[in-house]
C-alpha cells in the first residue's frame, strides 16, 4: 500500500502518482542515489582504514567492493521471487531503502574492518532491492512503445550517481571527517524514500479506473465498486483492456487481484523453475550475457586505469578523477538516445550498433600518444558501451511479456544477478591481468575487445523478435539453381 492510500478511498493525486513518467523519475532518482551511496565513500575508505591502523589498504578496499557485489548477488534471487510471488513492488522498494540507510549508519560508526564488510554486504542487499522491484515497477507502468526511452532515462541515473558521488565524498571528507559523506548519503536516501512512498503501483491505479500503461484512460467519479455491472459502447471505446478486465472482475464479485504487468493470466513460476526457462530462450540468454559482459568491462578498468594514467602521463589522483569524469558524462546521454531509438525501431539495431561501435575505441585507448587522444577515446568507449543497457533491459521486458508465468521481477532479477557477478569478477580480472601480464593495459583492453566482439556476433543472430541475421537473409536474392 502506498502512502496516503486507503482501501475505501481513491489515492490522492492518483494520475500523477501512478503515471509512467513520475514512476520513471522516481526510479531514476533511486538508481542515482544508489550509485551515489555506493561511490561516495570510495575516495575516503583508504584514509579511514589507515586511521584505524590497517596496512595493505588497497587490497582491503578491493575486498570491501567485493562484499557489496556479494550482497547484491546473494539477495537477488529471493528478492525477485518475492516481488513476483506476491505481485508487489512498493514494499521491497521501501524496505530496500531502509536497509540502505541502516548500512550507511553501520559503516559510519564501524570500529573494525569486519563491521565494514557487514555494512557493505547489507548495502548490496539494499541496492538489489532498489534495482529489481524498481525496474519491474517501471515496466509495469510504462506504455509498451515508451519502455525503451524510460529505461534509458533510468540507466542515465547510473552515470549521474557515479559522477556526483566521488567528488562530493572527496570534498566532504576534509571538512567534516569520515562521517560527512555518509550523512550526505543518508539525506539523499531519505529524500528518495519520500518519493517512493508517493508512488502508486499500477495494480492499485487500475482498481480506480486508471491504467498508466494504456494510452486511453477513464476516470470514474464514483468508487470502482459502483455501476460496474455493464459496459456500454462509450466505455468500450474509452477504457483500456486491462481496466475492463479489472472492472469486470469487480462486477462479478471476484476478489482476485488484477494480473497487471507481463503475466498473461497464468500463475507466476517459482524462481528455480524460471531460471531454466530463461536459459532455454536464446534471446534472454544473449541479453543476460551482454549484461554480464558489461559488468565485467567497466569494473575491470577500475583497478588498472589509475595505475596506467599515473605510469604513462604522470597524473595525480585529482587529474585521474577528472579523466573518470570525462568518461562518465557522455554515458548520461547515451542511454536516453539509445532508449528513444529502441522505441522507434526495436532492440535489434541499437544493440548491434552500440556494441560494434564500442570496439574501435577499446583499441584506440591502448595508444600511448597524447592524453587528449586517450580521454576522447575513453569517452567514446564509455558512450557506446553504456548505450547497450537500454536495449538489453527493453529486450528482457519483451521476453517477460511473451512467456507465460515469467514476470518483470524474474527477468530483472536475472539481470541484476548476472550484472552483479560481472561487476564482482571484473576488478579481480582487471587487477590480475594488469599486475601479471607484460603491457597489462594492452592485454586488458584486448580481452575486453574480444568480449565485445563475441557479444556483437551473438546479438546479430539472437537479439530481438526479428534478429538482424534473419532480416538480412530475407533481403538477399535467392540462389539460382546451377
From TrEMBL:
Keyword Transmembrane helix: yes
Domain Major facilitator superfamily (MFS) profile: 23-467
Keyword Transport assigned: yes
CDD domains xref list: MFS_MdtG_SLC18_like
Ranges where the record places region Disordered: 221-243
Xref: Pfam families: MFS_1
Record-annotated membrane-spanning stretches: 21-45, 57-81, 93-115, 121-139, 151-169, 181-199, 284-300, 320-342, 349-367, 373-399, 411-435, 441-464
UniProt feature, compositional bias: Basic and acidic residues: 229-243
Topology within the bilayer: Multi-pass membrane protein
Keywords: Membrane, Transmembrane, Transmembrane helix, Transport
GO cellular component: membrane
GO MF term set: transmembrane transporter activity
Protein localization: Membrane
The protein's name in its UniProt record: Major facilitator superfamily domain-containing protein
Source organism (scientific name): Crepidotus variabilis
